[in-house]
Specification:
Length: 214
């Protein structure tokens, strides 16, 4: 009789899942809420909407590269100032006389003094040292020349994404001969090349990217 007045508790309420408790109600909200494997989700995958971590930087434009080159050359001209002073001193020592009768022109002097020779040697040595340091050592180790650092562009190897080293940077400077041979076409090539490369860049597998110095 008591069974009819007080029905037993629903065996499904706290036992095995049944109609009283949806077995799916307590399951983790997958696969759309949180993804396994480190909580990756489709919204965080690299690709279309937002650049992924470590995505390659944009290639430097031709104008950026030319600007960096001009800055580097301007500094190189400053290093040559002693050479130019010595050259002017040598030219200033030249004396020219004209025979009033025959009109013959006679040039005397013109020999470089010891000071002029010293200044010319010093200017030449400074210039060579600057170019070796700036284009080979500094650029090879860091990816930046002085000009590239100012404009925020960097030379890297395509396969490693790292600076190429002093030795290969020197070889790359020699490879610029190929850029100059066909009417300097190689220097203009970045204007339409998809990777903004010169011929020397293609030979050495390098690119110049936009990456300001940290």
């Amino acid at each position: 009789m008591s069974n009819y007045g007080n029905p037993p508790s629903d065996p499904y309420g706290q036992g095995t899942p049944g109609q009283g408790q949806d077995p799916y109600g307590q399951q983790p909200q997958q696969p759309y809420g949180q993804q396994p494997y480190g909580q990756d989700s489709y919204g965080q995958q690299p690709g279309y909407g937002q650049p992924a971590y470590g995505a390659p930087a944009a290639y430097a434009s031709w104008f950026q590269r030319v600007g960096a080159f001009l800055i580097d050359q301007l500094i190189g001209m400053v290093a040559l100032i002693p050479y130019y002073i010595g050259l002017v001193m040598t030219a200033g020592s030249v004396q020219t006389t004209t025979d009033p009768t025959t009109g013959a022109v006679t040039t005397t002097g013109g020999g470089a003094s010891g000071l002029a020779l010293l200044l010319m040697f010093l200017g030449g040595a400074l210039s060579i040292a600057y170019y070796v340091w700036n284009y080979c050592i500094k650029q090879g180790r860091t990816g930046y020349t002085i000009g590239k650092g100012i404009l925020g562009i960097k030379l890297i190897k395509m396969d490693t994404g790292q600076p190429m080293g002093a030795g290969l940077s020197f070889v790359r400077q020699l490879a610029h001969i190929v850029d100059a041979i066909p009417c300097y076409l190689g220097y203009l090539w970045p204007l339409w090349d998809s990777k903004r490369q010169t011929f020397a860049d293609k030979i050495m597998s390098t690119v110049v990217i936009e990456q300001p110095k940290g």
